[in-house]
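Quarterly update from the structural biology core.
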Amino acid sequence: AKQAAAKGLKVYMMTPDKDFVQLVEENIKIYKPGRKGKPAEILGVWEIRQKYGIQHPEQVIDILALWGDAADNIPGIAGVGEKKASKLIAEYGSVEKIYENIDKIKGKMQENLLAGKEQIKLSKELVTIALDVPVEFDEELFSRKEKDKEKLQKVFEDLEFRTMGARVVNSKAENTQAVQGTLFDDGQTTETTKDTLPDNFANIRTTEHRYLLVEDKKSRIELIKKLSLQKEFCFDTETTGLEFVSSEIIGIAFSFKEHEAYYLNLPEDFQQTKLILEEFKEVFENQNIEKIGQNIKYDILMLKNYGIEIKGKLFDTMLAHYLLQPEQPHNFNYLAETYLNYKTVKIEELIGTKGKSQLNMRQISAEKVKEYAGEDADLTYQLKKIFEIELKKSGMNDLAYRIEMPLVSVLADMEFQGVKIDSEFLNKYADELRMKIITIEKEIFKLAGMEFNIASPKQLGEVLFDRLKIISQPKKTKTGQYATGEQELVKLKDKHEIIEKILDYRGLQKLLNTYVAALPKLVSSKSGKLHTSFNQAAVATGRLSSSNPNLQNIPIRTVEGREIRKAFVPSLPDTFIFSADYSQIELRIMAHMSGDEQMIEAFKENEDIHTATAAKIFNVSIDEVSREMRSKAKSANFGIIYGISSFGLAQNLGIKRSEAKELIDNYFKTYPKVKEYMSNQVAKARELQYVETLFGRRRYLKDIDSRNSVVRSVAERNAINAPIQGTAADIIKLAMINIFSKLQENNLKTKMVLQVHDELVFEVPKNELEQVQKIVHHEMENAVKLSVPLIADSGYGKNWLEAH
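Predicted structure, tokenized:
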């Protein structure tokens, strides 16, 4: 690689091995193959600097020396992982410089560094790739020539690669002239063009463009006139940060013509900026102009801070791509490279890498920001043109404009509103959980006959399997350690009482660290509320997810988990928390999609499917079914329609495998068309390579014909599951849009504050409660017409737990 680069050739090292990073230079890059649906990565000097925060790739040698590598027998320094190693080298420059400044490093880290001082020299020597080996680069060996079929045939026969041999040796792609190809053409000759190498992508320096700066009153008036004449325009806010609650707008880029953009530069003073944005209010709130953006929800939220509402039809390029390719990345750089063959200006090129020396966008000249911001708006506008054609071709235009795009405004309002939490309650509850954890910890130590670090998989494995010997042949991980993950421990619950205690200990620790202790710290000092982000483009099935914090995974099956909901309270006096959720929506969708008469009839007669199933499993009358029994039956119902095996069902329900098999057989006898539907879905997926929801949302299943039975069975389960789960997601999104619209039409003060899968949570003034209850029930139950009724249950109270 080094010799070829010295001759002026561009070198790509195709490897996922982090050791090769040290070889990267101007003409040497790493081509890291894509895995598990992720695209391939190309790492050059700039990317390495961003990833590790270092000045040059050779410093990776020092990072690896500190980090160590058990697989390569490189010791490293105790307690130092990738992030800590990167941080130390970014700060000090090298291993040697760290030891020169060892007095500046305090505590345990200093101790570990001093203890490893002697072996660090060896570590550094071991991770350094030798460049003085007796190898000479022969350019001729890398030239593509005609294949020697006889020699190739023999190689493939010797290796017994019959399928590959037939494909490569007998490839029809014959050329009289040898052509340089790529590593991935599988016998098909192709020229290496700008589509395959990133260095030849178009960029801002090679593309003609007209990006204009708008700074004075006259140019603002001119821009407003132009915008008001458009049927659509793209806009993109430049801000001081990524959190809308605490960030300010420093400028806005507009585009309504390819390769052309206008950058509105705004003053630092908040009030002055607000006054300038007021001038654009009429344009932003014009219902007849479509607004385009990439992750436009963030821009909507930023403008809400200044009293500006975005009205009219929306088009979000991120969401459009999410519909077209749900499992691919949707970030702006990826979209520009993939669809426009264009390499964008990265933010770090303007403000520098993360760290003390990183600048704020306000510190950059408006002239420079104009180019960066203008490019964003211009390319987003270009992407819109491509995606709207693709949406029509794929039949998802209605899905986009009826569900995904209108939902953006609803989610923006929910995020802006935020939700009030009782921090004092959570702090007290945190102390209570800590006491419970200490008690369980003592019980575990007593059962183990010794004290140990319960959080250490290594120590836990040794206690369970070497000391207590709870099973004779415990499962091990790839690194040779005993497997102590939750999935493995659940299988061993009946082997020793210590297992139940460990699972309880872990559950409470997770509850404490993830929610109880964490949520109060995430409350905004500005609004006094929690502002979660609802993500539309994260889950392939169409479900929403939430982050910072994730409120959709708050446990509700345990008493301790449910207690957290008590902390979610109204933000105003004389106001209630009101909650409404769909009853058994996925089973109702299954009844509709399968057309099973028995299941449809059961729902029409308002029978409880889970209770009926519980009566069969536990051989009791319907009146004797307990809440716990019903909960287990619910797991069985969903498990069966999503292709669970008798082994899996037996484990879930704690019954014999033969009983589970009998239950599955009886289930399909009761609902024969459910089994027929499942078979048809898998067959349809094989034919089309995707499945669809009732609204046309697609889930692509490229592994449906995989030769690997495990991979194939996952795809088959998704073929059955995705249309059901995706349809449920589409229905609640429609309900949210319609409820939001009705609340606005009726000038109600009620606010939708949370969505958790099949549940919607509102903050409702006491005097609006009856009216809101009627609106919510009507819109949820009539979001779509199925062959079975949709039912919503609701409740209200002084906190979320009471309401639920």
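The first strand starts at residue 11 and ends at 14.
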